[in-house]
Structure formats: structure tokens, C-alpha cells
Amino acid sequence: MSVKRLVFSGFDISGVLELYEAGALPMVTLWLSNRCDLNCIYCATEAGQTPDKGELELYELKDLIVQCRDLGARFAVINGKGEPLMDPRAWEMFDYIREQNMALTLVTNGILINTREKARFLFEHQVSVEVKLHHLDANVHDYLVGRQGAHKLAVQALNHLLEVGYATVREIDNCLETQLAVEVLLVKPALEGIPDLMRFCKENNIYISLDDFIPCGRGCDVGIVQELAVNYEERQWLCQEYKRIMGYPHYGTENWQCPIRIGLFIDNVGNVRADESGSSCDIYFTPNFANVREESVGSIWEKLLALRASRRFVLWELTQEKEAIMPCPKMREAQRKWEAEHRFGIWQQDYLVQNPN
Ligand code: SF4
Fold first, then answer.
1. Most CB within 10 Å of its CB: which of 10, 46, 240, 332?
2. What phi and psi, each to the nearest 5 degrees, are found at residue 155?
3. Has residue 122 got a pLDDT over 80?
4. Percentage of the chain modeled with pLDDT above 90
5. Fold for the domain defined by 5-354
């Protein structure tokens, strides 16, 4: 008997693609404030203690949601630039987004889901929640996120969420759908423990999201890249472990696409990135394309679609052109070296060829 795949409702690629192909703007990803209560050694955004100058005001954030909704968007993701829940406006935004009948995903480190009431608010608002948890060993997690005690708080958040109803799964097609995910970073210090984390997630009906380390921001440092980056063989091993433990292959090995990049990405000061090549994480490497304070979302979206068409919107394809448009030479060099060494982008196809089932 085949095992039913557990899927995370927050990243419904089929729904996003359907809207995209019908000509709509399907999804918007918003960064809230720069402020963060962790200090992850790999932080791609270099989030800090204070807000950035000129961050979008609450009324602007709400207006953006309305503009996106009017262009067809049915999905919203709130994830940063620092920790979204450090932004006091976050809860009002959740309310507002749900009032617009948009599905909402929150990506958080979980520190501030510190009461059952907050977890219940999220559950009652049908928010899909992805909580950062890199390891079952507190020492490893706390080291990676740069704060002692962070592991305990992340586990506490997961417990609150499970207690208020997130342990429930819904049957859809041949899958089980959950609204709770754990975000794990594919890095050397966490690697050996990831299979245990997979078992923990499976037992608790939590989707496990295996995220790539992005050599950008604090992760740009050569020493950090050397310490954290995993190689091709380690990735393959992890894919095999995933299949062995979960009973089905990881999405990433089936040419799964991150829906975030299909839509529009707006940062905390209103910049939109030209995410037209490579992987979903291009948003960290590509230059600003437009700013929502200077033109409407509709006009930006039209221009972005034209740009994608002219540059070929190719998934997982790394091009010279992509290198050329990365803004920072240090980033460009770190990314180029890392991709070459770790064969990023081709490992998935290789894995599929070798593991067709
Ligand atoms: S990676 Fe996320 S949680 Fe960690 S410091 Fe950066 S913004 Fe904060």
C-alpha cells in the first residue's frame, strides 16, 4: 500500500500555477521589518535589531494587498526581512489578508508564538505556519541561529501550534495536507540530525521543508560557506533518507518549483526584485527592478512578465546572464564558487535519473 504524501498547504504550487497560467498575479510575498530576535550565522538578509530606514507603513502594506488581490492574487506569504512577529503590525496584517480571502503563510522562527492564544489566533485565521527548527539537539540549533535557548522556544511554539489544532490533517486527492511546517537548513552541522527531524515531523503530521543555504548576507563570508555548505553526495544521501523515512521522494527531487518566485516579491522598503532566472532564492541576488512607491503593482507586474518572457523564465537553469545581474561582486563570487562546487541545480535531475521511482 502506498504511503500518502504529506503536503504543506502554504505552498500550493498547483493553485499558484493555475492562476499564473490564467494571466493573474497569483501570489505575493511581503517582507515586514528588518528587526529580528535571532542572529543566525547564515542570515541571508543580515537582519538586525532595528527597522530599516523607510520601511513600508501599515497603510501601504494593506494597499499592496488590495492591489495584489485585484490582480487575482489568492496567496500571500509573510516572511521577513527579519522575524515577521517582531513587527507589531504583523497580527493586524494577518487579519487584513484573511479578510481579503487570501490564503496566508507565515514563515517564522517561532520565538514569539509564545502563548497558546497566539497559536490559536493563527489557527483560527487559517494561517499556514512554517517554523524554523534545524535540529532536535538544542546545541546545534542554538549555534546556527546565534541565540541560546532559541531551540526551547521554537519547540514550545510547535507544541502550542499542535495543541490548538495544527496536528489535524486534511485529505486532498491522494495526499494529506497540513498547515504546519518545519524549516530545516541543509547545512553540514545539521545534516546528520535531519533524519531524526524527519521522523519527528512524520510522527506529528508536520511538513518538513529542506531549505538550501544561500551564500548571501552573513552567509557570504568565505569561512561560513566552508563550514556550512553540503556537497552533492551529502544531498543525495539525504534524499535517500527522506524517501526511506517518509515513504515517498522529496518534492525537490521531482522538479518541484518554489511558488514564491512565480508571483511577486516585495521587500520591506517596497523594492521588487527581478526574479527571472535560476532558483527561488534569486531574490537575494538580483537587483531591484521597481519600487511600489513609484508605480502601481499592476504596472510592475506587467513589466516583470515582459522581462521574464525576454530572458526566458527557466527553472533551475543557471546562466551567465544570472551572474551578470547579481549586484555585489562578493556575493557573485561566493555564489558562483558554491554552485560550481556543489553542483547546485543539477543534483535534482541527477537524482531523478538514478532514482526514477
Ligand atoms: S535567518 Fe531569519 S531568523 Fe535568522 S537572523 Fe535572519 S531573519 Fe532572523
1. 10
2. -65, -40
3. yes
4. 54
5. TIM Barrel (3.20.20)
